[in-house]
Amino acid sequence: MTKKKEKAMEDLPHIEEAKKTRKKVDVTSLESDKTGLAGAMERFLRRNKGMSFILAAVPATIAYFLSFSIAFTPGVYFVINVYEFTADYHLLLRVFATGMALSLGYLLYGIILILVVPFFNKLMPGKIRPFRGNWFSLETIPWYYHNALVQLVRYTFLDFVTPTPLNILFYRLMGMKIGKNCVVNTSNISDPCLIELEDNVTIGGSATIFGHYAQGGFLVLAKTQIKKGATIGLKASLMGDVIIGEKVTVKPHSVVLPKTRLNKGDPQ
Q1: What is the pLDDT of residues 26-68, one digit of tens each?
Q2: Which of 75, 82, 141, 223 is a good FRET partner for 238, with 20 to 30 A between their CA atoms?
């Protein structure tokens, strides 16, 4: 028997014991194992799913409204002033000047949005931690807000400044750990606070990276780590609970499933 097999046989009793003692979660249950107010809130979430979605959307909608308002204000102010200043100009020249003002106003909107949204992200209740359980749990609420805010910036501006220092700045402000000399050529990123990039990492165009996955009715939040010098190819997808080792290249269009650990030389 090889040493590897001997080690596996030695570990087998421990693995079996861990399986027996692992806490079972019934994802269909309408009850909660929490006590007090937390338990009451979680039971409400599970027994009133439609109402829970509506109530959860209210703070996110307020954050969206305030973020848009703050980010648009300087640009709108600039456009109004340019429009009034050019009142005596030829119509074509006035339209051109106003168009330029609108373009600059949109750029101002995006830059301010990148700074404002992380502020609202810090106001969200609770912290996002590794989690496995029912979708309708208190632990999922900050995760929901976090990604709602990420998508606000992604779909209204971030694609236009990727890859630049601006998208790196935004992800760092949202809690993503990014080392030195990293290139992030994608905006297809969810759960940035659960993603870690070490130095000299390259993320190819349109790659998808996130720190969660759904399986068997469970929502799982787990860190995704990319070690020094690794390269993630064009349109590759990395799910939660994945570790990409140093100087590993993930091939374009590859899908790296949860719990995968890739080291240099491993087959893909």
Answers
A1: 777 888 888 999 899 989 989 998 898 888 889 899 999 999 9
A2: 141
For domain 162-268, give the CATH number: 2.160.10.10
Report the alpha-carbon distance of residue 34 to residue 93 in Å, rounded: 66
Contacts of 187 (CB under 8 A, 6+ apart): 154, 158, 159, 162, 167
Strand stretches in the chain, DSSP E: 131-133, 177-178, 183-184, 188-189, 195-197, 202-203, 208-209, 212-215, 218-221, 224-226, 231-232, 237-238, 242-244, 249-250, 255-256, 261-262
Per-residue exposure over 61-75, b if at least 16 CB sit within 10 Å of its own CB, e if not: eebbeebeebbbeeb
What is the distance between the alpha carbons of residues 266 and 245, in angstroms, rounded to a whole number?
Answer: 10
200: Cβ contacts below 8 Å, ≥ 6 apart: 179, 180, 181, 182, 228, 229
Whether residue 86 contacts residue 93, with contact meaning beta carbons closer than 8 Å, is answered with yes
Region(s) of the chain under CATH 2.160.10.10: 162-268
- Picking from 16-20, 198-202, 239-243, which range would have the lowest pLDDT averaged per residue? 16-20
Task: Say whether pLDDT at 161 is over 90.
Answer: yes
State the average pLDDT over residues 11-30: 56
pLDDT, average across residues 221-250: 96
Mean local confidence (pLDDT), 230-241: 96
